[in-house]
Amino acid sequence: MKKFSIKNFKLILAGAAMIGVVSSCEVTELIPANLIPDSEAFGTAARIESAVLGVYESAQRGFYNGSVVNGRGYPFGAANVEQGDMRGEDMYNDQAFYEITYTNGYNPQTANNNGMWISLYRMINRVNIVLENLDPAVENGVLTSEQANSYRGEMLFLRALAHHELLVHFARPYSDDPSSAGVPYRTFAINDVPKVPEGEAVGRGTVGEDYTQLLADLDAAAVAFGSGAGDVSRASYGSVIALKTRVLLHMERWADVVAEFDKIKGLYSVTANPALPFRGGSSSDNIFSFINSEGSNGTVNGALPAMYGNPADGGRGLVKVSPIIWRADFWHPEDSRRTELTSRNATGIYTAKYIDPVTRTDPNVILRFSEVVLNAAEANAQLGNLDAAVALLNSVRDRALPESVPSYTATGLGGQSGLLTAIYNERRIEFLAEGRRWPDIHRLSGAGIMDGIPPKAASRSINNIDFYTTDRAITFDHSLEYSSNLFVWPIPLVEIQTNSSAPIEQNPGY
After folding, report:
1. Residue 69: its pLDDT value, please?
2. 340-373 as b/e, with b when 16 or more CB fall inside 10 Å?
3. Distance separating alpha carbons of residues 198 and 183, to the nearest angstrom
4. What phi, psi does 473 have (nearest 5°)?
5. Alpha-carbon distance 170 to 460, whole Å?
6. Cβ-contact 308, 319 below 8 angstroms
7. Using DSSP, how many helices (H) and how many strands (E) does the chain show?
8. Alpha-carbon distance 375 to 254, whole Å?
9. Which of 364, 357, 361 lies closest to 316, judged by CA?
10. How far, in Å, CA of 21 to CA of 270, rounded?
C-alpha cells in the first residue's frame, strides 16, 4: 500500500504478488496457478503473459479475511458490486451477510473494508511488478515494443481502476474538496524486503493528486494501446477511454467527458436487449468485464449469482431489489428491464442479471457503453447542451420501453434541472445490481446534490411480495448524512499498526 509493512509484505508473498510467484492462471480459462522461479519469471514471452494474467486473477479473486483462498470475489470478481450496492438504497439486504455494510456498521477491523483495501493494493503491487519488467524484456529481446505497449496499457488501466475504487470508498469526493486526504497511490513495486520502508514512506497525498495520477495513468495507457475496442475480458483502448469518462465525471470536467465520449462512440452501441451484456461473451455494450468460471469465482459465499440469485432459481437470495426503486414513480411499469432483468418469488424481487448460481460463471461487467452514454448525457446537460443530453438519455431509456411510451424532451422534463434528475434516475435503473449506486451517491453528495445515503428499507424487514406490488408501508432506516465520518470507510487498523516507519493517518472519527 502506500505504506507496506513487513506483515503486509508477507501477505503479498503468500498471495503470489512477487516475481518468483507469478500466476499462470489464464483469466479466460482460469486454470490453477503455477510457480515460476524468480530468475525466470520474466524470461520468456509466455511467462510474461502468465504474469499479466496473474494480475487479472488477483483482481478477479483476491484477498479476504486473512486469506487469498476464500477470496469471495475481492476486489473485482464480485465484491465491488456487492459492497457498492449495499452502501446504497436500491438493492436490499435480506440476511446478516451484508448487514455491516448495509447499516453503516463498519470499523477499522471489519472484514469487508479491510478485504477491499488489502486486495486492491495486492493487485496494484502485481501491476507494478509487471510494469517494471516490460522495458527490460524488450531490451533482452523477449518482447517486441508492440507487445510491451499492449501489456503496459493493460497494467496502467488496471492500476487506475484499482485506485479509483479505493478513492470512492476510503476518501471524500473530488467534487467536494480535492485537497482532502486521498489514498496512497503506488506507482512502484515492492518485490524485495529492502523496498518495504520505501513503500511505507508513501503518504496518502490529496484526492486531487490521486486524480491527477489517475488521468496520467489512463493517458499513458491510451497512448500505449493506440486505438480499438479489444477483447471484453482484457483491457483495451476502449476500456481506457470509458474509465476516463467515469473519472472525469467525478471531477466535474464536463467538456472533457464529452470529448472522451466522442473518441469511442463509434466503437460500441447500446444493445436493444438490456440483458445481452450480462450473458457472457462480447456484446456491443460490454466494454470490459472480469471473467468468472466454474473453477475460479467468488464461491457460494461471494459470487454474484449466489448472493443475488432468486432462491427459487437456485440462488441464495441474500440481496434483493429494494421496493424503494421498484415502486419509484420514475421507473415506467412497461420498462422491459422489469421483466427481462428481474425474477420474483413470494418474498420479493431479485435481479436476473446473474443467472448461473450452480457454476457461478457470470462475468462481472465493469464498464458498459450505456454508462459512457449516460456520462456524456450528464456532462452535456451540465454544459447546457440539453438537446444532445436528452437524445443520449433516450438512447438508453427508449430501447427498454414500447413505442407507445413517448421519449423524454428537455422541455417536458422542465429544463436543465429536470433533465439532470432524469439522468440520475436512469442511472439507478440501468445500473441496478451493478454496484454503481454508491459511486453516484459519493460524487453527488460531494457536489451538494445529495446529502449522503438516503433512507433504506430496514434490513431484513422485506419478507413479502406485497412490499413491491402494493402500497404496503416500508420501514425506513440506515440513512447517513454526508457529514458523518461513516460516509468514508476507515483505513484498516492493521495497515496503520504494522507500519513501523511512517504510518498513514486514519480517516477522522475512527
Report:
1. 65
2. ebbbbeebbbbbbbbbbbeebbbbbbbbbbbbbb
3. 16
4. -65, 135
5. 27
6. yes
7. 19, 8
8. 9
9. 357
10. 41
CA 437 to chain centre: 11
The better pLDDT of the pair 21, 479 is held by: 479
C-alpha 46/C-alpha 31 separation (Å) is 15
Residue 199: pLDDT above 90? no
Mean pLDDT of 12-23: 36
Q: pLDDT at position 65, please?
A: 80
* 485 closest CA partner among 454, 452, 458: 452
CB half-sphere exposure, 500, CA atoms < 13 A: 7
For 451-474, give the secondary structure using H, E and C. Answer: CCECCEECCCCCCCCHHHHCCCCC
- pLDDT: which is higher, 200 or 247: 247
Rg (CA), the chain: 22
- List the end-to-end C-alpha distance of the chain, in Å, as a whole number: 19
Residue 141 pLDDT more than 50? yes
Helix or strand holding residue 120 (H, E): helix 111-139
β-partners of residue 344 are 349
**Amino acid identity of 71?**
G
- Residue 367's SS3 state is strand
Q: Which residue has the cell 415506467?
A: 332
Query: Cβ neighbours of residue 451 under 8 Å, at least 6 residues apart?
Result: 445, 481, 482
Q: Quick one: angle between helices 254-264 and 369-383, nearest 10?
A: 140
Asked if the bond preceding 37 is cis, omega within 30° of 0, the reply is: no
- The grid coordinates listed for 495 are 495497515
- Residue 25: pLDDT over 50: no
Q: Which pLDDT score, from 0 to 100, does residue 62 have?
A: 83
Peptide bond into 75 cis (omega under 30): yes
The domain ranges of the chain are 276-364
220, 366, 167, 122 alpha-carbon torsion, rounded to 10°: -80
Backbone angles phi, psi at 421, to 5 degrees: -60, -40
Question: DSSP secondary-structure letter at 34?
Answer: -
Q: What is the mean pLDDT of residues 83-104?
A: 97
Give the residue, 6 or 474, on which the prediction is more confident: 474
pLDDT tens, 157-196?
999 999 999 999 999 999 999 999 999 999 999 988 888 8
Angstrom CA distances, 460 to 78, 456, 457, stand at 22, 11, 8
Q: Name 290's bridge partners.
A: 364
Q: What is the DSSP letter of 374?
A: H
Identify each DSSP E strand in 52-128 by its residue range: 91-93
Q: What is the pLDDT of residue 39?
A: 52
Contact 206, 181 (CB under 8 A): yes
Contacts of 406 (CB under 8 A, 6+ apart): none
Q: How far is CA 44 from CA 31, 50, 51, 150, 152, in A?
A: 20, 10, 11, 16, 16
Give the residue with greater pLDDT, 367 vs 2.
367
